[in-house]
């Protein structure tokens, strides 16, 4: 019986370790359909004060282009994030409580008044 228990223990540890050690990420696309170029997109989970780094890979996020975003996650990662978007004159708009866990594509748009809004897919 001791051999079976010991073998089961090692077998369990061997297969459990890779599952715990795996890296996960939230991955989605942001599409710029605003008719303007954007110069900064910042995200932070809803429980964090301040903004993180700009997630645009280049200096500018041009109209009619797509940026793929990857955010590393762990057991403490939340699904709800806030987004801050800036233009070339440093004007910004913020969206709160965006569910990144269910997000595949976030499309940024501009209405007739020049206000930014988004849709999700």
From TrEMBL:
Signal peptide start-end: 1-21
Signal recorded as keyword: yes
Superkingdom assignment: Bacteria
Sorted UniProt keywords: Signal
Protein name: Uncharacterized protein
């Amino acid at each position: 019986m001791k051999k079976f228990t010991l073998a089961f223990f090692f077998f369990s540890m061997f297969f459990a370790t890779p599952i715990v050690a795996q890296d996960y990420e939230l991955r989605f696309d942001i599409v710029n359909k605003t008719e303007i170029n954007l110069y900064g997109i910042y995200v932070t989970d809803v429980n964090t004060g301040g903004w993180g780094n700009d997630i645009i890979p280049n200096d500018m996020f041009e109209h009619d282009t797509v940026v793929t975003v990857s955010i590393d996650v762990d057991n403490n990662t939340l699904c709800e994030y806030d987004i801050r978007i800036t233009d070339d004159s440093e004007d910004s708009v913020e969206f709160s409580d965006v569910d990144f866990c269910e997000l595949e594509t976030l499309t940024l748009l501009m209405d007739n008044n020049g206000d930014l809004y988004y849709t999700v897919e």
